[in-house]
Design brief:
Blueprint lengths: L2 H16 L3 H14 L4 H13 L3 H14 L4 H13 L6 H15 L4 H17 L3 H17 L4 H16 L7 H16 L7 H14 L6 H14 L5 H13 L4 H13 L4 H13 L3 H14 L4 H13 L3 H15 L5 H20 L2 H12 L8 H13 L3 H14 L4 H13 L3 H14 L4 H14 L1 H5 L1 H14 L4 H14 L3 H14 L4 H13 L3 H14 L6 H13 L3 H14 L4 H13 L3 H14 L4 H13 L3 H14 L4 H5 L1
Protein name: TTC37 protein
GO cellular component, one term: Ski complex
Keywords: Coiled coil, Repeat, TPR repeat
Length: about 675
C-alpha cells in the first residue's frame, strides 16, 4: 500500500466513524497498520471506533499505543480521557489523573480555556479521592495561571474561596503542607475581599479562626487572627470567645488571658467561654465554690472543652468533692478523644487527677478504677509520684504486700520524695503501727510541710497511739490545727478537733463550732451533725440545733438522714408537739425500720396525740424487735388498759413481772 493509499484508507476510516460505521472504520485502520504499524492516526481511530463498539480494553490499548508513538500529540490523550471518564471502574481513576496531568502539560502553552477545564476536572477527581494535598497544589497552580492571565481581584477572591471549600472538610486530618496551603488560601481570600468590613468578610474571618483553632501548632497565627478580627469588628464576640477557649485549653493563664476573659464578659455576660474564664480566675484566687459554680455554668454552654472540665475537677478536688471530680475527669477524657502532642500530656495529668480522686474515695472499687487510670499514663511505671499513687490504691484494695513493695522501692530510689514517706506512713497507720507511722509522716512533713493531709494523718496517729499522745496538746491538737489551716475544707480534721475540744479540753462551745464546720463541709457526716446538735442542746441553744436538723431534713431523700429525723422527732416529743413527732419518727423508721427505740418513741408520740390503737401497734413492734425493752411492753399493757382490754393488759403486766418482779409501774398497772 502506497503512501497515497494509506491517506485514502485513513480518510475512509474517518468517514466511516463520522457515519457511525465503526466496524468498517476498524477494517480500514487495520489495513493501514499492515503497511505502517506505527501510524499514529490509525491507532487513534481504532481507539475511537473500539470505544464506540464498547470494547474498552481494545480502545485503551490503541490510545496508549498512539500516545507512546507521539507523546506530545493531543488526540490520543483526549481519547484516553474520554474513555476513562465514561468507565465505571474505580481503578481507572489513577490513570485518568495521569492523563489529565499530561493534557495540562500540552494545553499550557496553547489553549488556556481547555487548560482551565481540565484543571477543574483534575481537582474534582483528587477531591473525590480525598487527595487533599494534590487538590491544594493543583488549584493553587490554576490561580497562578489566572493571575498571569491578569484576572481581576473579584475572580481571584472567588477562586481562593473555592479552594477553602475544597479543603474545608479535611482540616482535621491534613498533613502540614496541605494545612499551610489552606491557611494561605484563607489569608489570600481575606486580603482579596472587595468590601471590608462586610458580612461575607466577617464570616470568612470566623471560618479562618475556626480552622486555625484546629491546629495546635498555629497558636501565634490564631492569636494574631483573633486580634486582627477584633480590630475590624470590635462588637463581634466570636474571636474573643475562640481566644478565651484557646487559653483555657492550652492552660495559659497569663495577664493577657485574664484580660480576655474579663473583656469577653463585659461584651456578653452570658458567654460560655467568658464564664469558664471567670471560673478559672476564681480557682486561681482560691475561691473554690465560686469557681465550681462558674465552670459548671460555662460548661453547660460549651461542653466540649476538656481544659475546662480539668479545671472543674481541680476545683472539686480542692473542696474534697471527690466523686464529682471523677465525673469531671471522665468528661475531660471523653472530650480529648485520642490526643497527641501537648494534648497527650494533658490527658496524663487528667488521668493522674482522676486516680487521686478515686484514692481519696477510699473503697476497693474506686481503688481498682484508680489503678486502671494510672496504667494509662504514658511513662507512669517510671514516674515516682504515679507509683506512690499506685501504692495507695493497692492499700485501699487491701493489697498491703504490693503497696509495701512499692513503698520500699521508692524509699530506696527516691529517699527525698515526700510521697514515698507518706505511703509508708499510710501502710503503718492501716496496720495500727502508730510509732512507725509517726516517723514516716514526720519524714514526709520534713520534705513537704505544706501538705494538709500529712498533718491530718500525723494528728490521727497521735489520737489513736495512746491516751497520753491523744491528750498532748503539742501533738494531736497542733497537727489537726495545722491541717485545718492549710486546708480549710478538710471536714474530718474539724470533726476530730471537735472530738478533742469536747473529750479532752472540755470546751463544749469550741467543740460545737468545729462539729458545725465539719458538717457544713460534708453533709453526709452524721457523726459531726449529731455531735453539733447534741452540744447545742446541752448548751441550751435549741435554735441552732433545730436549724441544723431542719436544713438536713429539707434536703433529705426518702429513707435517708435517719439521725436528723430521729433527733427532731424526739425534740418535738419532749416539747409536747406529738403530731410533728409522729411525722419525723416515721421518716426515721423509713431509713431504718428495725430500730426498736425509734418504734418505742413513735408509740409515745401516737399516745401523746390520742391515737391509742396505733400507739399499741408501735409499742408491740418495739418489743417484738427487742424483747428486752420492758418499758415498751409496759406501755403496750397501759394502752390496752386505757382501751378497756383488761384481760390482755393483766396478761402483759404478769409477763413483765415474771421477768422483773420489782417493776413498780407493772405492779401498779
Amino acid at each position: 500500500m502506497s503512501n497515497k493509499e494509506v491517506k485514502a484508507a485513513l480518510k475512509s476510516a474517518r468517514e466511516a466513524i463520522r457515519n457511525k460505521e465503526y466496524k468498517e472504520a476498524l477494517k480500514h485502520c487495520k489495513a493501514v497498520l499492515k503497511q505502517e504499524k506505527n501510524n499514529y492516526n490509525a491507532w487513534v481511530f481504532i481507539g475511537l471506533a473500539a470505544a464506540e463498539l464498547e470494547q474498552p480494553d481494545q480502545a485503551k490499548g490503541a490510545y496508549k499505543k498512539a500516545a507512546e508513538l507521539e507523546p506530545n500529540q493531543l488526540l490520543a490523550w483526549q481519547g484516553l480521557a474520554n474513555l476513562y471518564e465514561k468507565s465505571n471502574q474505580t481503578d481507572v481513576k489513577g490513570d485518568l489523573a495521569d492523563v489529565y496531568q499530561k493534557l495540562l502539560e500540552l494545553y499550557e502553552s496553547g489553549d488556556k480555556q481547555k487548560w482551565f477545564d481540565v484543571c477543574n476536572k483534575l481537582v474534582e477527581l483528587y477531591h473525590q479521592e480525598k487527595k487533599y494535598l494534590e487538590v491544594a497544589e493543583t488549584w493553587q497552580k490554576l490561580i497562578q495561571m489566572k493571575q498571569e492571565e491578569g484576572a481581576e481581584k473579584p475572580e481571584l477572591h472567588r477562586l481562593w474561596k473555592r479552594m477553602i471549600q475544597l479543603l474545608a472538610d479535611s482540616a482535621q486530618n491534613q498533613d502540614n503542607k496541605t494545612a499551610q496551603l489552606l491557611l494561605n488560601a484563607f489569608e489570600e481570600a481575606l486580603n482579596s475581599a472587595d468590601t471590608v468590613p462586610s458580612e461575607d468578610h466577617q464570616n470568612l474571618y470566623k471560618d479562618f479562626i475556626q480552622c486555625l483553632s484546629k491546629f495546635p501548632h498555629e497558636t501565634a497565627k490564631l492569636e494574631k487572627a483573633c486580634d486582627d478580627m477584633m480590630a475590624l469588628y470590635p462588637t463581634v464576640s466570636y474571636p474573643l470567645e475562640v481566644l478565651c477557649l484557646h487559653f483555657v485549653q492550652s492552660g495559659t493563664l497569663s495577664e493577657e488571658a485574664l484580660h480576655c476573659f474579663s473583656k469577653l464578659l463585659e461584651m456578653d455576660s452570658s458567654s460560655g467561654p467568658g464564664i469558664i474564664g471567670f471560673g478559672i480566675k476564681c480557682l486561681q484566687e482560691k475561691k473554690y465554690e465560686e469557681a465550681i459554680k462558674s465552670l459548671t455554668e460555662g460548661l453547660q454552654k460549651v461542653s466540649q472543652c476538656p481544659g475546662a472540665w480539668h479545671y472543674l475537677a481541680e476545683a472539686q478536688m480542692k473542696i474534697h468533692k471527690h466523686r464529682d471530680a471523677v465525673l469531671s475527669c471522665n468528661e475531660a477524657l471523653k472530650n480529648l478523644g485520642n490526643p497527641e502532642g501537648p494534648s497527650l500530656q494533658q490527658k496524663d495529668r487528667i488521668l493522674q487527677l482522676k486516680a487521686e480522686a478515686l484514692i481519696k474515695i477510699a473503697d476497693a472499687d474506686a481503688a481498682e478504677e484508680a489503678i486502671n487510670a494510672l496504667e494509662q499514663i504514658v511513662g507512669g511505671s517510671s514516674d515516682p509520684v504515679v507509683l506512690a499513687f499506685r501504692g495507695r490504691a493497692y492499700l485501699n484494695k487491701g493489697l498491703v504486700d504490693q503497696a509495701s513493695k512499692i513503698s520500699q522501692e521508692l524509699l530506696l530510689s527516691h529517699p527525698d520524695l515526700a510521697e514515698a514517706h507518706a505511703l509508708e506512713g499510710f501502710i503503718h497507720y492501716s496496720q495500727k503501727k502508730y510509732e512507725q507511722a509517726e516517723r514516716s509522716f514526720q519524714n514526709a512533713i520534713e520534705r513537704r510541710a505544706e501538705t494538709a493531709e500529712y498533718h491530718q494523718y500525723l494528728g490521727l496517729t497521735y489520737w489513736f497511739m495512746s491516751d497520753e499522745t491523744k491528750k498532748d496538746k503539742g501533738k494531736t491538737l497542733t497537727h489537726f490545727l495545722k491541717a485545718a489551716k492549710l486546708d480549710s475544707y478538710l471536714g474530718r480534721v474539724f470533726c476530730y478537733l471537735g472530738n478533742y475540744y469536747r473529750d479532752i479540753a472540755g470546751d463544749k462551745s469550741r467543740a460545737r463550732g468545729c462539729y458545725r464546720k465539719a458538717f457544713e463541709l460534708d453533709g453526709t457526716d452524721e457523726e459531726s451533725g449529731t455531735a453539733a446538735v447534741d452540744l447545742s442542746v446541752e448548751l441550751g441553744d435549741m435554735d441552732t440545733a433545730l436549724s441544723i436538723l431542719n436544713e438536713v431534713t429539707e434536703k433529705a431523700n426518702a429513707g435517708t438522714a435517719k439521725w436528723a429525723w430521729l433527733h427532731r422527732g424526739l425534740y418535738y416529743l419532749r416539747t409536747g408537739q406529738p403530731s410533728q413527732a409522729v411525722a419525723d419518727l416515721q421518716a426515721a423508721l423509713r431509713a431504718d425500720p428495725k430500730d426498736s427505740n425509734c418504734w418505742e418513741s413513735l408509740g409515745e408520740a401516737y399516745l401523746g396525740r390520742g391515737s391509742y390503737a396505733t400507739a399499741l401497734k408501735s409499742f408491740k413492734k418495739a418489743s417484738e424487735l427487742n424483747p428486752e425493752l420492758v418499758y415498751s411492753i409496759y406501755r403496750a399493757a397501759a394502752v390496752e388498759q386505757i382501751l378497756g382490754k383488761y384481760e390482755n393488759a393483766i396478761a402483759t403486766y404478769q409477763q413483765i413481772l415474771e421477768k422483773t418482779e420489782e417493776y413498780v409501774p407493772a405492779l401498779k398497772g
